[in-house]
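Thread: quick sanity check before group meeting

JM: Hey all, I'm pulling together slides for Thursday and realized we never actually wrote out the predicted structure for the chain we discussed last week. Dropping the sequence here so it's in one place. If anyone has concerns about the input, flag it before I start.
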Amino acid sequence: MKLSDVEFRAMNTWWRRWGQKNFELPLFQRIGMDIKGKDVLEIGCGSGFGGFLLNQLQPRSYVGLDAMEEQIEIAHRTYPQFQFMVQDATDLSQFPAASKDVIVIFGVLHHIPEWRKVIDEIARVLKPNGSLFLEEPRGVDIRLFDFFFRWGHPDSDFGLKRMETHLKSRGFQFDKRWTPLLTMYHIKGAF
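JM (edit): ok, ran it. Output follows.
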């Protein structure tokens, strides 16, 4: 799904980059993120700043995906040294099964109406015992943002409990979870 104009502008600001650098990535590291020498896929890479941060951790390979051409154009222009692709995450068929050690999502899954298909694709692409680092807001937070800021999130049944249930049904095991503002997960694949 494409972001609304309001959210697109908000996601391309200095404060969004500051939050990723000083809050989100350190929390992922705190709950176990270690990607040095690993094959990493980022779903919903946006303008590429998350990819820039992840590549500072020295992965063997990195690919960032986003459904918005506008975001990928910014990513290519700003970080030409990294690989970014326009791609819908409900179909990751260009990646072989069990080909990624780590998959990272910085709060994008709730934007995808068919979020269950994304989880199914992650289950296929993630290596056995690979790691999924996933950050998502609570459903009430999504509704508040839509009420106050008119961000226009998709009308779907996304919710943390539903997401957790679907992840468990696909064999994922929850390693760590952190929840004060955003819910951040370190989830292990067990296939």
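AS: nice. Residues 145-151 have pLDDT under 50 and may be disordered. The two ends are 29 Å apart (CA to CA).
JM: adding both to the slides.
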